[in-house]
Amino acid sequence: MKIKIVLSVVFFLCTINNYSQRTESNFNNNWQFILDTDNLEFSAENFVDSNWATINVPHDWSFEKGVRKGGDQGQGGGYHDGGIGWYRKFFTVNKSSLTKTIYIDFDGVYMNSDVWINGNHLGKRPYGYISFRYDISKYLKEGKNTIAVRVDNSLEPSARWYHPCGIYAPVKLIEVSKSHISPNGIFITTPKIQTNQAQVNVEVDYINPSNGLQYQFTVVTPTGKKIQSKIQKLDGDKSNTSLTVNNPLLWSPETPVLYQLITQVIQNKKVIDEVKTNFGFRTVEWKKKTGFWLNGKNVKLKGVCEHWEGGPVGGAWTKPMLRWKLQLLKDMGINAIRPSHNPTPPMFYDICDEIGLLVMDEIFDGWHKKAPQDYGKQAFDKWWKADMKEWITRDRNHPSVFVYSLGNETHSPVAPELVKFGKSLDDTRLYSSGAGNPEDMDITGINGGSETKSFLEFAKFDKPFVSTEAPHTWQTRGYYRTQTWWRDNELPGTYPLPNLTEKEIFFYEGLDPKKWKNRKQRYNSSYDNATVRISARKNWEVMRDTPWHSGHFRWTGFDYYGEAGLVHGGLPFNLFMGGALDVAGFEKDLYYFYQSQWTKETMVHILPHWTHPRMKKGTVIPVWVYSNADEVELFLNGKSLGKDKPGTVWNEMQCDWMVPYEEGKLEAVAYNNGKEEKRISIATSGVPQSLKNSLNKLKAEGGFSSSYIFTSESIDSKATLYPYGENRVYYHISGDVEKVSMENGNPIDSISRTKSDFRTLFFGKGRLFLREKDNAKKASVITASILGDKALYLSNLISIDVQKIGIIGEISKSNLEVLYTTNGADPLKEGAAYTKPFEVENNTTVKAIVKQNGKLILQLEETFGANQGLFWGDEKSANIWNGRGVNIAAEEAILKGGAKVSNDAKHFKGTGFVKFDNKEGSITFYQENDGEAGDFSIRFGYMHNDEGKTYPMKLFVNDVYIKTFEFPATGGWIQNWEFVNTIVNFKSGANNIRLETTGQSGPYIDELFID
Question: What mean pLDDT comes out for the span 247-260?
Fold first, then answer.
């Protein structure tokens, strides 16, 4: 296809030469680092830092330190730490560079960074999720120069989820001519796009323009062909140019076609500055009645929300690892992503442009304090304009960015000012939020409230709508229950989600229920029957079939560290299980549900697995198959169980069969047009005897070396996955690679992901993540594991598996020797040589060592016994938690006296709350305790802003006085809800809980929570 440019001034000058163009240097490697030692002398030019650690960035010291009981970030941050860290780096400057302008450019430093060059303070940047730069030219000298960076995370928690600490994103040094294009100074728009022609407008800002300068634009087509364009004289510090491209190819998630604009500054026929900018042609429309339109087509937004930190590296993503993450989500079938709740480093948007993901680009969580020490509290009022300017001017050329989101579950009179300021920088996109001041936004965005039946069937809007955070469904990879689980019990106004069997048939847990702190401390079922308000299937059905519903961003794509107490009851839980993939990048069953609805290539997936050694033969198990084929036939041990067709109604989207359990092989065959298209099978596994190891190389890009994902799975003698595998896998790494982390997806595993030499398999799987060193030539990994059924229920046969796997180059021959003991003795002194599997008795600790060419390289240990590993119980094991974890709306309680219902506030739960208006009154809640009598934790959500008043209220349970609560001021009457709590004893059966005022009025009361 020929693409032509209309030239309106002067034609291309063939005599132009490249001269003194800008150079960008990778500044990521060989930083010196020290943590938790704060001294302003560290900023000095000649401070001796030879005893500091040498690291490369991206770097996240909080992730490296790991989980700690009492960790600074609290439950929201997965019990990780904060602190103060210092970075220093030496670099050399040539004399010729001293006549140039040199910038140091940071893509992300969390948070409160101060930067010095040769002892000169350059500035402070509070926000941890924004890029920034400094002009360091006047402080440089020929030869050795020093940069120092102080990062202050001493005030915690500073976010509501896990945040990185440190220089977690790339850094580069940019050298340009004194006259150059401003940072973020190019703005490309495509105001007119037609089939045969498109208009391209280019606005450019310049720094230090001088007489006689010219600028030139060259468009590069998707095939790499350069099209020459006009050269114009530069008059002032801005330029505006319009170009025409014939037969433009459109950018979309299906066809992510990218053009490139080369912008050059010319002096005396020499190019003195040049910037290359990718852009795309696409049209976006939002319509109130029909939702979202892309390139003239009505498109449903099939998106996910995604924290920057969701995955196996904390916040320290390299470009190869980030592409792996985003491609996994793309392969699930998504077409959109909402980085929640902050901007991401520029490489994120580059990848979304390239692979085809629409981005709802979000700038802030709150416009005021939400976490105790967050940006909203520390810096928002002073810094929001600077951060918004950087954000929008940096991201506005990306075709993937299709809408801006200004905040999340926040409310403030500042909202209209944010919108107005944003549009002054980019008025080509509309503005929205995640349930923040929707009345001031162009697009109404609603979070969890958009997944109830009452909302989805009766909501009406005077502007376009998008579900910014829904659905909320929770799954633990490899874990199943047939009884529906609601986070807060079934809420009014939700769609029904029936149990799959009359009684529960699965009775295993990560923790013994007697050790739970609350009813949240269980794993969540992978049948799409563990939820807050709605199943993934029903949410997709309603979204798909409701014209005004533009689409959703499910919470979330990947699991992420943090929100462990709020969502899963606290330690030992340290991460959140709302993703379609776990933090190791293993796909959950939910991943394949979305694939069955959102992708075209024929796929088939069976759940659950077919290894149930403690289940009585003949127990009827719901077997589901997710597929996008016309129909699927299921076989058990070669016998057909019939065919089923995937439907369009939510509870028919999976093919399903009720199958009496017997050991053997389940096989699913997919048919299209009556012909077999695909066939997969799963089988009953025996005791694990070895590891299946596999390697995935992620190629180098963006100045980063290659990464490697090393996967280990426990398999039996027939190479069948043992789905309860929970043995430790030890790693010995040698050669030119370094360990990034080890991850298995287990939400209660707090072993160090970075410092330990082992990690336990979680439901049979685990991963080691590696990064290639510079000039790598040779590397290998030795894995070792003591394998067997932890509880010795399936078998008391134990195996030791040791393997050497090449990563880079050829594997050198090694003599691997394994010695072991079963009596607690040191195998180095008393160990027997391992030659074949051996039997052990209950409560045996097996110790082993691995020698390579006579040198000790690994020490292994594993304990086996009836009480080891997963908890295996029965139908009564969790009865003590029946009726707990309930929230009861105050407006639905019995109100007396001056207590009355209101909705004149923000962020209350349910349909309203109760207020007293300076009168006396009482609220009586009713709770049916289905279990045994016992102690329960209760808390009341309240709010008021009368400093010095505590509005005391008496608490009675079953008419027995318990205590008098005092309610300190929360800082507002609009949205500042807080809690008071205590422990009470509920009898079995009916209980009433009464709050009554005493001598004063009361605060606003929202809900009673019972755990």
Answer: 97
